Automatic annotation (TrEMBL):
Residues 145-185 are annotated as: Disordered. This is Uncharacterized protein. Residues 145-154 have a biased composition (Polar residues).
């Protein structure tokens, strides 16, 4: 195997040189700019244990099947949103999601389920979805979270979230503040 190339025909396989180049690009550009602009030492990685990831995937499959039993694994995915924890003075927003206060102001990821659905022009799109909000239509898993409320009305003030129950995952370990021991890149 040529370690200098990344063969897109082999999912899950990347050359170490490409991995290092991508990580270095982030650290030398984005991370440096963030740290300088915000005056912090932001996180450069996040770690999730395998059982947490497997449980999240199983929960996506389970909840999607409850809403629409015809939903296949190929229809489902996970979108990773870049996110930032609130500042320490606003930490009370985290009361329902226990995360160490040392994470205040640092980068994180939020994982949200997606489902393939044809949009109004016939294009197959991976839509964010909340299996707990189906708008009363079992065949309609997808909610266009940025533009529509569950009733389909445009909402610029709160989005489609209703009672604030959603399927998402965020609670991983950030480095820093976690010790980077064990990181290869």
């Amino acid at each position: 195997m040529n370690t200098e190339s990344n063969n897109p025909l082999q999912p899950g396989i990347m050359s170490n040189n490409l991995i290092q180049a991508l990580i270095d690009n982030y650290r030398q550009n984005h991370l440096t700019a963030i740290n300088t602009a915000l005056g912090i030492q932001d996180a450069h990685s996040i770690w999730f244990d395998l059982p947490k990831l497997k449980n999240f995937i199983a929960k996506i499959e389970e909840e999607a099947a409850k809403v629409n039993p015809d939903t296949s694994a190929e229809d489902l995915g996970i979108r990773f949103y870049y996110a930032t924890y609130p500042k320490q003075e606003n930490w009370s927003v985290m009361d329902s999601h226990p995360v160490p206060v040392e994470y205040a102001g640092r980068h994180t990821l939020v994982m949200i389920p997606t489902v393939k659905k044809t949009n109004e022009t016939g294009e197959l799109i991976d839509f964010d979805f909340n299996p707990f909000k189906t708008n009363g239509e079992n065949s309609n898993l997808a909610l266009n979270a940025r533009n529509f409320t569950p009733s389909g009305n445009v909402d610029g003030n709160g989005g489609p979230f209703g009672d604030d129950t959603g399927l998402g995952e965020n609670n991983g370990q950030l480095t820093p503040p976690k010790n980077p021991a064990g990181e290869l890149y």
